[in-house]
């Protein structure tokens, strides 16, 4: 009998241990609050920076401690989803424009409308930052910065090829990149993105060509409700864009993703690269090209002299299931404050969320100046919102990348590509109604 | 009566020792497996988990009707056979080379076995750079050796891309074959080989008449294990080509990841369950065939 009791007791103890191991933050007996924060775009330097900011928050908020959970980036969204689904272990979390729809649909995110707009620092946020937080009458996160495209270019190669300055339009880019292309010397015009996420640059070109009729709130649609891929201008855009592959890129660019494109530019073999500002730090650290050999230029314009600037973003939100929503919202407010937010944006190479941060010499000089130029000229570089939050966004990304590669391999024409994409979006939107 | 009491106590003691393992395996393996399996029969989409209705065999029907399915199935077959056959042959040769004692054998063994300690994903990343047409070492070496005149677009050409991912997988998997076969070779009694040599059997005769029959069971099981792992392992392809170009290196498990990334957990689970059934049937037939061969 004693043995039976012993066995039962051991099993009960183990079950309790297992259950307590699964639980997240909470309140300690002495009244202190323990928050759990989960990031999803993890890298060691970024994690260290967030930890420093959290230490500052803890120093300012006695009685609150924050544990930072940093799953590997490629599994982070799934882990976050599992934690949110279980309703435990998450107080503050990283919310991206591509995950906010799913997370909020499932009721996992707290609506910060009442908290956010009454914060002391709310008015310090840029119009863009305030605008992206609003979704169907709710605010599920506060962005920590924006990712936006600009053109990285080799100043020396452009000059040697006889041009006065960097290309301003897609047509200019084709002309300059083709002139610079010299495979015999291992020099290529354009770091063409044919691999993962390659479709995004095709769309950037189509949006630049359709900008005058573009629905800026949904940059995959025209103002008449049809898709941008059905516009006659879209054909000119894709023909120009794919000519870059034919005339000014290495044939193997069919499989080039982010690492190959950046490597091609930093090792000096490609003259042009369309990328987010985070690449500024990588290129700056390169020992192959000197600071005088490269710079950045604003995003390429279409035939009417305008470009669409789709700002991708992510930020911090609060879990609906958090037992400490008030403290969690305080943490989001702290991270969105002028000093921590500017530091986070600068050290992660992001377009800042704080009004006037662009006047900092960090942004107004060197390769960052093109971002300031675009910000200051919203008539030419029109900020647009892409429908990244729709439920079929990942399906779209995968299909679009496959179709792009099919065109590059010659098994699909550019007009078939546009027809495919137009049908895809038209049918998806129709199925929603 | 006394004996029965003792038996009950003994049973409880045994249960006490087994209980932790049963609890942990049930909690961390079988419960998630059951959860995953039931998802295969529901419309389980990350986008809206507030409604996950039962759809019967609907997910399986959708997978079979997908035009990508035949391509993925064919690629999976090429991937498994193309990986296992070279791994077996090269692994066998490596094991034979390391079988007999020679100077620095330990060093050679360590060098040859080290790939097994590297993660498959990392192997994929490394080979992605090695096969890069412009900056990769593979084209560089081939050009210096005069084997090619111009760089080959390894990961951009559909046929070459499949060759490239298989080469990476062969490099990764040879080690396991070598380890297993070497262990089996070391169990072959020296006296039998010596007796055969005295009777006039040459190296090739001894290999096919004594060594291979002696290690046959190990060979068969190693092929079975590696076939299952290769069938199930998407990481090298995922890191090298992400299934591209244009889906031409997609195998069943990279396809499953694609659905997972879309949030279509119901479809992904259906593929997972189908993979399990296919592997179960394959194992059953394989083991039956092996038994027949052994009985001859």
TrEMBL record, chain A:
Short name of one Pfam family: SBP_bac_1
Recorded superkingdom: Bacteria
Keywords, ordered alphabetically: Signal, Sugar transport, Transport
InterPro entries the UniProt entry points to: Bact_solute-bd_prot1, SBP
UniProt cross-references to Gene3D superfamilies, sorted A to Z: Periplasmic binding protein-like II
Cited SUPFAM superfamilies: Periplasmic binding protein-like II
Protein name according to UniProt: Multiple sugar transport system substrate-binding protein
UniProt source species: Promicromonospora sukumoe
UniProtKB/TrEMBL annotation, chain B:
Residue ranges of every copy of the ABC transmembrane type-1 domain listed in the record: 73-286
Keyword Transport in record: yes
Topological type in the membrane: Multi-pass membrane protein
Predominant location: membrane
Compartments, as annotated in UniProt: Cell membrane
Residue ranges of the TM segments: 12-31, 77-99, 111-131, 160-185, 206-229, 265-289
GO biological process, one term: transmembrane transport
Gene Ontology cellular-component annotations: plasma membrane
InterPro entries: MetI-like, MetI-like_sf
Keywords associated with the record: Cell membrane, Membrane, Sugar transport, Transmembrane, Transmembrane helix, Transport
Taxonomic superkingdom: Bacteria
Family indicated by similarity: Belongs to the binding-protein-dependent transport system permease family.
Full protein name: Multiple sugar transport system permease protein
Source species: Promicromonospora sukumoe
